[in-house]
Structure formats: C-alpha cells, structure tokens
C-alpha cells in the first residue's frame, strides 16, 4: 500500500473544518499550533476565536498589555506559552516589520517555537518539505510500522523524524503533515482505536500482531510532586480584598492570586488557622479565620496542588485592598478563578 497517498486521501475526505485551515496564513497557523500544544482542539478552539477577535493581526497582539493576553489565556494552562506568544508577536511586529519567517530554520529562532511548531508552520504555510513529529505522529508511525523504540528516549525523535521524512511527498508537505496529525487525532487515537474501520488495518503491524495497546512504547514516568497551598481571602472593613502578582520562577508566573501560605504537608484545620492568625505577611491581626473551601486538588503535569481557601476578616481598612469587581479583571490561575466565580460571596 502507498502509505502517503492513502493517508492524504483519507485526510481530504475526513479533515475537520478548522478556522486556521481557511487560508493557511502564518499568524493563524502559529497561533493555533501554540494553543494546541498540550491541548485538545475542542478545548483550544474557543480560545483561538477569542484571540483572533481581540487581536486580528500579529501587530494587535504585540501592542496588547501582557495582562490582557494572560486574561484571555486564563484556563488554557501552560501559561509560559502565552508569555512566549506575546514576546514573539512583539519580535515579529517590531523587528521583522510584521512579516513571519518563511522557512523552518528561521522559524526555529522564534521564542516558544520548537521543531514541531516550526515544521508545521513551514510546511502548512510555505510548503517546505519538513516532517512534523508530535504525539500523534509517534503513535501512527509506531503502530503502522511496528516500531518499539521508547518514544521518551533520546534516539526516538531522530528515528521517527527520519521515517516521516522518508514518506513525505515533497510537493504535498502541507497535506501530508496535516494528514499525519489528523489521523492520529481522529482515527489512530491513544485508547481503543476503531481498527476495524481503519484504512491501514491490513498493513498495520500493531493491528496484525496484536500490539495496538502497547504501541507506542513510553517507559519514562513523570515524577509528580505534591504541594500544599493555603490562599488567604481577606475581607476588610470595606469588604475589599487583596491579590498579589506571582513574580517568581515556576508555575503561574505573572498571574494573580490571593496571599499564599505554602506548607510542606497537609496541616490540620485548627493548626492552619493559628498559623494564618500569626502570619506577619498580612500586616494586621485577624478578627476571624474560617475555612471557605476545603481541599481542591489541581493537577498539573508534574505537580499536584492541594489547595484550600481561607477567609480572614479584619475590622481595619487594609492598604492596597481592592473591591471584587476590580479584582475580577485580573488574570488568575483557573483554580483561583473558579473559586472567585463559584464560592466567593
């Protein structure tokens, strides 16, 4: 079977009607590819529309305040993508006069753009015959060709990239790369794929040898760290509260949150209440401390955050406190945003 020919034919008959496929403009393709890193299309689509509406061109995005960019990104996760997106927009707008690089090597120089994203933009927008290699591509190739190389190992990327390049038609790079990604997303899915309905079932090594469930091989396990967050929701004499901007390295950089006490382990409620009462970072002695929301577990790729929200009441007027309407305008981690929307009366 001609793998490339049949794959492209399948794609042309089954591809989804996605907005960034309308014109293959580098701005919309770049925006979609950054958003879809670690994110499903269904989740990313509303964000794509929000960004295109707010920032129709790369210059519009470049000229936007970072807080507006982060606010629109709120809930999509992996916020470094948004910061890199903004930085790259500025570079393209101010240094490259609004014109995207038109080849793989130059695209790789953009902040937040790696091998996969550069190859996607170069092939989709400019027809450059460079293969894309992402999770979908690993899965399709490993199953079809029966490759048992551990995809988390160092040699895997080069091996799969070379294999994809071997089958990539030089005059149909855009269709082939999008077909590979789409086939992995719709047909050759991670769990319980419908192999009986697959165009490649007769030739797929994984299907014919009963290895669909074990390919691709990924042996490296992600180490998960548990962290314990206690957010202090101040309520002063005016009913105002306090939020801070996260400035340190690590998760949620430049997003806002309530004052935070992080502990090594889960601290009993009574003990934590005393700790909050003695917390000098508040700048006042609380009249009352109460647990508003008990532990919410927020799972990130390498961390599980065990989060509690505490109301701290004072009869004083707290310097720098703001009313709720103003606070809601700031960009927050989604777990804090959800608390504000659902539990903060």
TrEMBL record:
Its cofactor is [4Fe-4S] cluster. Binds 1 [4Fe-4S] cluster. SUPFAM superfamilies: DNA-glycosylase, Nudix. Keywords: 4Fe-4S, DNA damage, DNA repair, Glycosidase, Hydrolase, Iron, Iron-sulfur, Metal-binding. Pfam families: HHH, HhH-GPD, NUDIX_4. SMART domains: ENDO3c. The keyword Iron applies. GO terms for biological process: base-excision repair; mismatch repair. Its EC number is 3.2.2.31. It is an enzyme of class 3 (hydrolase). Signal peptide: none annotated. It catalyses: Hydrolyzes free adenine bases from 7,8-dihydro-8-oxoguanine:adenine mismatched double-stranded DNA, leaving an apurinic site. Residues 35-186 form the HhH-GPD domain. CDD domains: ENDO3c, NUDIX_DNA_Glycosylase_C-MutY. GO terms for molecular function: 4 iron, 4 sulfur cluster binding; 8-oxo-7,8-dihydroguanine DNA N-glycosylase activity; adenine/guanine mispair binding; metal ion binding; oxidized purine DNA binding; purine-specific mismatch base pair DNA N-glycosylase activity. Belongs to the Nth/MutY family. NCBIfam families: mutY (TIGR01084). Adenine glycosylase active on G-A mispairs. MutY also corrects error-prone DNA synthesis past GO lesions which are due to the oxidatively damaged form of guanine: 7,8-dihydro-8-oxoguanine (8-oxo-dGTP). This is Adenine DNA glycosylase. The gene is mutY.
